[in-house]
Amino acid sequence: MAAVVFMHLRRQNQNIRRNRIFRDPDNPLDYLDDIDIVRKYRLSRPMIIDMCRMFEYDLQRPTRRSRAFPVSLQVMVALRFFATGSFQLVNADVHNISISSVSRITRDVTMCLKSVCNNYIKMPTDRAQLHDIMEGFYSTDDFPNIVGAIDGTHIRIKSPVEDEHLYVNRKNYHSINVQGVCDSNMTFLNIVAKWPGATHDAFIWANSSLSEMFEDGTIDHGWLIGDSGYPLRPWLLTPVLNPTTRNQQRYNASHMKTRSVVERSFGLLKSRFRCIDASAGTLLYRPLKCCDIFIAVAVLHNMCIANRIPLPADIDVNRPDQGHIDRQQYMGILNDGANVRNRLINGRFGH
Fold first, then answer.
1. Residues 275, 80: contact at Cβ < 8 Å?
2. Strands across the sheet with 223-225, in order?
3. What distance in Å separates the CA atoms of residue 91 and residue 292, rounded to the nearest whole number?
4. Radius of gyration for the alpha carbons in the chain, expressed in angstroms and rounded
5. Considering only CA atoms, which of 293, 240, 294 is closest in space to residue 266?
6. How many whole angstroms separate alpha carbon 297 and alpha carbon 125?
7. Tens digit of pLDDT for each residue in 296-315?
8. Vertex 290, ends 287 and 294: CA angle to 5°?
9. Poorest-confidence range of 21-30, 80-89, 160-169, 206-215?
10. At residue 66, does pLDDT exceed 50?
11. CB burial class (10 A; 0-12, 13-18, 19+) of residue 40?
């Protein structure tokens, strides 16, 4: 009797319909392991899935195709470009889609990331958060009251059709001059990506919303730290030119060590997302799109820092920024921070 019941149940189980699991051979999420995903696309699998959910409604679109591109494939195509800077033909071959699709997908994902940049790149204004940033700098570099390190970097672009001469920098190549402020963890707190390569860093700073926030007291606590290309202000400390005392030398040494984090941040950003690095060649887009791409990868960079994504073996965290150009000393009239700097030198560095 038991044998009869067993055979009856076995026939029932055989008749149960099992859903087939389809894997898309063109979607890297379906065939790459976790290590290869980070190595080739820079983000982890859970982060990519979260991005797909975040931009699902923006990237799904009506189509006459019998099978539209999945959102996950679109995200992966864009991430591959950001990670490598490879030509559209190469990216198209890797993902088995057309060159025009690669172009359209990269544009759409870039704009999605730009639309959320204020959620990921933001300078705090309340004292509690500013104090946390100060603690970070003090614990790593022993420099007090720093709420951000500021610097600029150049992104190589193709020669623009309009106002070409404005984009030629001091190294005699076409670029976008990008201003960035970061904390001690190499998270970007502020990005300004809109000025041609010939623009002086001090001009970019003076015309930034962050400068206005310090000017009007929106940020009334702590100092930024920058090189001699910036003006010396009560909230922006620069090095002493031609130091003559031991205190000034100690200040300059600590200043240089503390400020180096922003150069390393730009270096890490470009190593992780080679599309904006000179090693991948030149960004072959209009200046405005190049600026959008930089903002997009800066958002991804902060996501990686926040999620502690391990660095692939081909990335050197201490790699210097190849887009750093030695600046001309600021020679303007706004150098009213000497008293603040002197008090710091004679107090903190006078022992």
1. no
2. 188-196, 175-182, 146-156, 223-225, 236-237
3. 20
4. 25
5. 294
6. 24
7. 999 999 999 999 998 877 77
8. 140
9. 21-30
10. no
11. middle
Structure tokens at 272: 């992780």
CA–CA distance, 286 with 158 (Å, rounded to integer): 8
| Tokens describing residue 259 | 């400020």
CA distances from 170 to 189, 200, 201, 288 (A): 27, 10, 12, 21
Compute how many other C-beta atoms are within 10 angstroms of the C-beta atom of residue 248: 20
Q: What share of the chain is helix, strand, coil (3-state, %, to 5)?
A: 50, 10, 40
What is the value of pTM for the model shown? 0.88
Beta bridge partners of 149: 182, 225
Tokens read off for 166: 């404005």
Instruction: For 95-131, give one letter per residue: b (16+ CB within 10 A) or e.
Output: bebeeebbebbbebbbebbbeebeebbebbeeeeebe
> Which residues have a Cβ under 8 Å from the Cβ of 185 and sit 6 or more positions away?
136, 305
How confident is the model at residue 275, as a pLDDT?
A: 94
